[in-house]
Amino acid sequence: MKAQPEEEIDLSELVIREMELDDLSAVFSLGEKLFTAEKWPSLYRTWDEYEVVGFFESDGEFCYAAELDGKIVGFALGTIITKRKNAWVYGYVVWLGVKPKLKGKGVGKRLLKRLTDVFIKHGVRMMLVDTDSENEHAIGFFRKNGFSNEVGHVFLTKNLQRKKRRRVNSLSPPTKKSHSHLKRSGIADKE
Hints:
Blueprint: E1 15-18, H1 24-34, H2 49-59, E2 63-68, E3 71-82, E4 89-98, H3 107-121, E5 126-129, H4 136-144, H5 168-171, H6 180-185
Parallel strand pairs: 4-5
Antiparallel strand pairs: 1-2, 2-3, 3-4
């Protein structure tokens, strides 16, 4: 079977603009397709409606949408970080997502450029971004766009759903005898 030729997409009408209230649903929906637990099981941030609404509400001037033909095809959500007793202001790219068929076409680069420009206007001296260590596409993208000085960071997980091996007796309900000390103290209900 022959591979289909890649469809030419005209990006001359692509608009990068500040997100609007009406964009929240489309941005959330796109993010749901991009940031799945199956693809990124140890993603330490959770993509949900609160994430999008929270950034829009608290850091709206750092939330951008990429629009093409009236549809949201990408987004960037950022924030500014200041530290006490530190003159530096940091711009943090928290989420950056582009519709899969438009990856590698310059949409992410334009979103990042707009966010960078706004960060500079707000006095940011350094931008930060993080991604999964296995997300080679994102790492390559950020390197191409001037990010460097990779710092290793370890995230540990603990599976709380794993069943512990217990003896059958420990799973049986408590007996009346086991509550006798509570009855004497007046804690247990009278039977």
